[in-house]
Amino acid sequence: MVSRDEQFRLKRNALLREAARAFSGRGYHNTSLDDVAAVLGVTKAALYHYVRSKQEILFECHMLSLDLGDEALDYARRHGHTGLEQTTLLARRYIELITGEMGRFAVLSEYDALDHESRSVVGRRRDQFELALREMVARGGTDGSIRGVDPKLAVFYFMGAVNWMTRWFRPDGELSGADIAAGFSDLLGESLRSRG
User: pTM of the prediction?
Assistant: First the structure.
């Protein structure tokens, strides 16, 4: 039996995913809460039962993507033995999660649309994710699985590709999220792999 709080959380998360898709399709600034309510087939009043504002939806979409990043980090740490294995496992798992959980997620490129306080919270969590990924790359340099690269540049290389993917990925496109995750992690792994 699902508790009332759990039901609320599940419904709210479903709403956030659909709102993210609406924002991704039309752009955050071009999508109103009326548009989101229409996509969901609910009244604006029903929408306000779950969220207070469009800004809250944007913030929660960013937090969801960061939660998925934390899940991918945990997965990579548990299953990877070398720095290279951990880095490529994180890349693959993160892309699988974000493309599966969020569908179209161009809304994540709307970082500057966040209010100051929200941008600060999201920025801190982004920095923590980036630092953890850098540490994996550095570990690979130490254990010999990753060639001599600057960990910061390697992370920017990967995250830049993921951020650009927010512009072109479509759940019904030619490549599935799993296909893209496999391809990206392979490209990343081959670019970092030690040849010695």
Answer: 0.85
